[in-house]
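Reminder to self: keep the SMILES exactly as supplied, no canonicalising. Ligand is zinc ion.
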Amino acid sequence: MPIRVLSPASPEAGPSRRRLPPSASVQLGQGDNDIDDDDDDIVEEEEGWTKETFVNRSLSKNDPAIIPQLRQVVDKLKEAIGRIEEGLDVAKETAMALEDSKQDEPSITEVENTFFRALNQRELLKIKIEVLEEMSTRLRGNEEFGNIEKSFAELADPREKAYMAKSQRAKYKNSKEYVDFRQALWEINHETACPPVSQWLEKGDDDVSDDDDFDMGGQTQNYRCPITLMLYKEATTSTKCGHNYSKAAIEDLIESTRKAKRQSKCPVTGCSVPLSKADLKPNPSLQKRADDFERRQQRREDEREDGDDTIAIEEDDDYE
Ligand SMILES: [Zn+2]
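C-alpha cells returned for the bound complex:
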C-alpha cells in the first residue's frame, strides 16, 4: 500500500521533487552517496515511500497522520529485513551444497559476497528504522522538522557511511549469521572445531582497537540434546535463552517440574532461565543440520572402514 506522507498535488511539493528510479525507494537520504552499491532486488519491491511522497514541507506533530505513517514505513522496512534474512538462509544453504560437492569450492566466495551484501543491506535498513523511530519520538515530543527529507538524511547518512566504512572484519566478525555461515560450511569437511571467523575476513585499520576476546568461533557443534545427551530429536529452541533441546525431553522436564510445583528452568549449565512450554518453538533447520551432521559422521566412518588397507584419509591434514 503506498504511503503518502503528503499528496503529490501539494503546491509546496512541486519544484523540490526529484525523480528517482524505482530502486531508490526506501533508500532515503542516500541520494548522493554511493554507499549502497548493491541494487538489491529485495529492497526494490518496497514501494510507497519515495522521495516523491516525502517532499519538503515542515512536519510537526500537528499533522495527526504523520506518526502512524512513519510507523507504517518502519513496518515495511521490517518486512524487507525479514526477506533479507530469508535470503541469508538461502545463501548459506547454497554455500553448504557447494562445500559438500568439493571442499573450498571456489564459487563459495561469490556466495559469500552475496551474503555480505545482504548483511549490509539489513544493517542499512536497521539504521533507517532507528532514525525513523527517533524522529517519531521527537515528533511526539512536539519537535518540528523543517524539512523531513533533509532531517532524515542528516541523521541517517553519517551512520550509514560509518557502517560502510568499516572493514570486513569489523563488520562481520561478531555477526551471529556470519559465524553460523562459516560454522555450517566448516563442519561439512572437518571434524575439528571451527576456527575464529576473523581468519576469513579482511583486516582493516579499524580492527587494531577491536577486542579479540569477542572473536567468535571455535565452538564444536555436537548436535546433542543437553538433557538426553543424544542427537536432537525434533530440535526445539527456547525463545528466552536460545538453548536447544529434543522436544520430548524438554517438555517432559517442564511437565515434571510443574507437577512438583516448582518453576522449570533451562537445564543448560549456567543458564537457568525460567521456562514454560510457551517459550519453546520447533527448530527444523537445526534438526536438519543435526541430521546432516549425523549423515556425514556416518559417511566418514564408512570411508574409514573402506580405507583401512590404504590408511589414506584425505581429511587427516585438517585434524590437528
Ligand atoms: Zn538456556
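Points to follow up:
Residues 66-101 form the longest helix (36 residues).
Residues 238, 241, 243, 266, 268, 271, 273 surround zinc ion (CB under 6 Å).
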